[in-house]
Amino acid sequence: MLCCSPGPAMESAELESDILRRVRTLLRELDGHHPACQRDRGMLRWTLHKKIDQNPSNSPILVRILVKELERAERGDYRHYIIPLLHTLMYALIKAPCISDELCSRVYDFCKKLLTLPKPFCTIGLDYAARLKMERTAPGMLYQRMVISEQSLRSEPYPYQEKIFIFADPELLSEAICKALLTDTEAARVSQSPRACMCHVITHAMQAALGEGCDLSALRMRLQGMPSSEVEHWFQEVVTTVECTGSKGGADRRQHTERLRSIYSAILSSSPPGNAPLEGLQGTPLPNPNISFHLWTEDDQLWKELVLFIRPLSQSCEPDRLSQDLDNFEIQDIISDCECCEQTRFSVLSTDSGIERDLPPTAEEPFAPCSADTEQSRLHRKGGIKKKPSPLESVAFLQTGCNSPGVKPAAKVQKRVGIPTEPTAPLLRLHTARIVLLGDDRILGRLAQAYHSLRKRETRRVFLTPRLNLQFYYVPVTGQPGTLADANPSATSPEELCEVAAYLSRADPWYESNINTLCHMIPKLAAMPSSPSKHLVTDLFITDVIAYYVRMGAQPICFQVYAVKVFFSSSAQEPAEDVFLTELCAQVQDSISPREVNPTKKKTTLDGPGIDLTVTYRKVVVSDRAKEVSLSLRSTGLSMKAIPASSAEDLECLNVNITEAVRINNLSGRSFSTVANKLKTRNIKISSTEQRPFTLCLDKDSRRTYRSVISLEVSPCLEPSYCLQKSRTMKFSLHEAEDVGIVKYMPKSLLLPINTFAGVIQ
Length: 762
Prior knowledge:
4-stranded parallel β-sheet, 25 helices, Phosphoinositide-3-kinase regulatory subunit 6, 1-phosphatidylinositol-3-kinase regulator activity
């Protein structure tokens, strides 16, 4: 009797069953059914993609299963499955060595169906449908663009560059966590070279177009033996071919395949023919993105890193001179603004007509017969105001723009005054900075401060805005004992310190499954003893998850930044202005007694605990009409929370909780109890009636504490560019209270966008 071994069909069925089981487990986690082993929570997506990376030939199986699950979710109205499944599918499709056009067509048709659904489904569906249309025409185009931009490879057809900046506050995270993250990011950055990344782009494009007809082993050996200049030549040839085909709407895929086949043959032409059989589909690894880790120690550190990203040291000047120029940039802005103001304020009577031919002859230009061209060139208007260049302009740091491909240099000043200068080309946003914040709500408060400062700086002198696309991401990480986590006793629990992460998790379940679970996992991995297994886990997991987040998380949730103006008890102290993002907390200042503040007032038992406050606020009503409300009460403290407890509540509204001390009468005499007064508002003013000071804390950060405060005003923070344009408009229409002209179309409030996978699901 013959014994039959299991055939390939049975093995394929078992593999498909295993992948389907993993996908179904992933969906059950979205429903709140967490895995039995809590250690696996948040790792299901990562382990699924890693299993496919180990055997890339199984990528079509995963894509086919995910397409079936997407169609099943649409029929069964399981909309909360659609976006996680779609992100998982697209990530697998980008990394896959080769996907058939029939399978891509099914995914493309499904994405078009999402256009009939509300946001964010239609937004994500439109984005992925446009990408899939290019991928179907030029296979491997999505992988190629991702590697080129993330690794900042020089390419004229696609000159975009990206970089990930991870910022962590050393006073909020333990030293072990900071060291572990620094080690992992450095290892990820050093592990790949530009030459290796160019080889990855070539091999992936060939296999995506030629399929199993591509001898990947021979191609890799041939590229490995080439000099770097020749590798770069073939890289440019492949990129140009793929970009030209993918950018054309009606390009023929077969012609694209033939062009790449000719390049493939030219690369292997000088290598000896091999007799080894083709090994089938093999995977090309997707390199880790360019990640830099920064300990946030300076207030303007974010702006400096962004400027260095646009203008690296090699393109600017010496490091010492650059540092000095960066420090002087703010001062030069103020001086320039003052000079402009002075020049516009005073007018000087001039007898100069402004035409060159009316000028007397100088020693440099003796009398000479004027030709027609010379006469025409002398009829040129001279400039009215000349401004001294700043030190940064003298080293061509900011004004010359980017040297990247695709941006034309600024027109040089012509020596001959009469020759008109060529108009400069508009700047393109070729750079994308992805800012990843690690920590709790307090580091987001610092981000709100830095973002507000950056917007004010850009309003005075625009440099980053037309050149840089700025994206923000947030990975919650809880602090460890010995950090500032213990400094605020009223908010030491992780739940209270991570309210933003909790809101993002409620709004986006995929964020909860992949990112919010890192809150406790990163400290545990950092506390592991140093061993090869530890580096294996951290290098593969933390770096991969952050890379997946920044690559696929493109839907922002915008948080309102609030401005607060603080008045102090001392008349000699100027009022302070600050911003906050999550919370403002005020407590009675016990160090100063009421007798010291107002000695004529005699304290009685009727006063009770707390201080007398006058509260004036604009009540939030359904009709959105302004309704001023004023009340007086005695309070022991108050808090203003900008993050709602439910994702259904309005993000553009403050939840104010005032603890009021109320007198009660009972058999034992008079006593006091506390009652919580809750109100919703966007604008509020609070002042101490008896001039008794209180203490103010912003964003739960003990480093941002104001003492001896007697009054405060809170309102939504306005966009600095809106304020500037509004002030200019008011000069010409002093009696206009409403926005007119271009001001009507400008964003009024300053919003901080934090990217997630889905945004707020309707």
